[in-house]
Specification:
By secondary structure, this protein is of the alpha+beta class. The protein is built from one helix and three strands, in the order H-E-E-E. The protein has one helix at residues 7-13; strands spanning 35-37, 41-44, 50-52. It binds zinc ion (ZN). Zinc ion binds at residues 27, 29-30, 32, 44, 46-47, 49.
């Protein structure tokens, strides 16, 4: 599931933007979907925008139980 944000919506929810490992993630900077995913953050391969991972501080299995 994915959602496209308007500029106004981005301003409102920007602090909530996270990378969701089990979803398609559109870059808020350029709209592309290719990411370099690390342990705690994901970085856009095209423009370098970095997002925190949604479950960076939770056990990995939590999402799947
Ligand atoms: Zn980007």
């Amino acid at each position: 599931m994915s959602k496209h944000f308007s500029r106004t919506e981005l301003d409102c929810v920007g602090y909530r933007l996270v990378y969701r490992a089990n979803e398609v993630n559109h870059c808020p900077g350029c709209g592309k979907m290719h990411w370099f995913v690390g342990r705690n953050s994901a970085e856009c391969a095209f423009c370098g925008t970095a997002l925190p991972l949604q479950n960076a501080k939770l056990p990995e299995l939590t999402e799947w139980v």
